[in-house]
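Bit of a strange request maybe. I'm writing a small parser for structure token strings and I need a real example to test against, not something I typed by hand. Could someone generate the tokens for this chain?
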Amino acid sequence: MTETELLTAITSGTRARPGLCKVLGIRYFHPHDARRSVPGWPDLALLGRRGLAFRELKSATGIITPQQREWGYAFRTAGFDWDVWRPCDLASGRITTELRALMTG
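Reply from user aminoacidic:
Good idea to test on real output. This should exercise your parser:
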């Protein structure tokens, strides 16, 4: 699964299979063109009734850049929920569990 396929599965999905955010009622923001964003800014900002989370998406073999690590450290230091999601996290149910927690706490 590519990073783009993971993003689609998490956010908007397809007509036949809506994305998790759509199903769970989670608001999300994804920069349209990350090349014009600040280097390292997370792929997703996710907002539910119970909180805000930032996630960097990577393929199974994708590598976190130094700038992404710096943003992650800054978010966590400030008390925000930041982490990395990969396709294995979708398959294991981790992503669904974390998204549900944003809605129900």
